[in-house]
């Protein structure tokens, strides 16, 4: 079965409230829907969320790189030649979400062709994941109110707290308020998106030592090589590399260099094929992984839960699967629901991504 067409459709859906963090803020989900068509009429779907402040991709650059570079390189290859697809895509450095969306759309097509769910094809470990909710920058009171609302409404009991502000005392106060309000039973961890220096990060970790944090993520830049190594040596919990370890080679470099002791796996940037390489590398090395969220919509979240639940090693911790809750609308015919703190994989062949044509027509930016 051959690939005959690859579409990149820009769409934009506003957020109810922006997500703010140390490296940027998101007001609108200006994503790209990627569709891979086969000669037998199957259509695989995924979404690419541009994160300009992290990887330099924009909605426009994703559409351009898919239309002008990636699609022409893979047309004519079959669904069973994914290794060749990646060989061709990987000639181009960067563009992680564009590559990842093509990979996941291909897997969706493969699942449909086989009449099997992609999650089962990937590993089929379980059919659901516990959900971790990301709490963005706001006053301590507002951050507590959000976490309490998400716990009360969806049963979520794991929270990733965005930190990395200056002065750091604001973040220390917010973390403390969250622990006091939510109690000892919730799981809390922090993500600094490179906002602090290594010494500032060390100071914060000391001040938060009594809060029983589960992880610390990207508190300072990995490019401060010796500072980051110094920090990670002193960090009392696994130190997650996220944007510093975006592919298997970078994961190796960060882990062997002592700049990280855990890894965030994001299907939005490594799709399924490269995410499996990262995951298996980490599993082989005995390194913990967390399923991260690149501020995905429902399409991306479905991809993330399909992958995370497919493997024992990625299903261990709660996955970051709730950013879509803050969108005013989405593209799926049947919206995702989080119940009892859990998100389930969609049943059926492929990824179960059924796009509502009216919604796509309303939100697409190209016609
Ligand atoms: C995260 O884990 O950092 C914020 C920026 C990005 O690329 O992903 C999010 C969440
Ligand atoms: Mg992160």
From TrEMBL:
SMART domains assigned to the protein according to its UniProt record, in alphabetical order: MR_MLE (SM00922)
Keywords: Isomerase, Metal-binding
Record carries keyword Acyltransferase: no
All copies of domain Mandelate racemase/muconate lactonizing enzyme C-terminal, residue ranges: 140-238
Domain of life: Bacteria
Family membership noted in the UniProt record: Belongs to the mandelate racemase/muconate lactonizing enzyme family.
Protein name according to UniProt: Enolase C-terminal domain-like protein
Protein species of origin: Streptomyces iconiensis
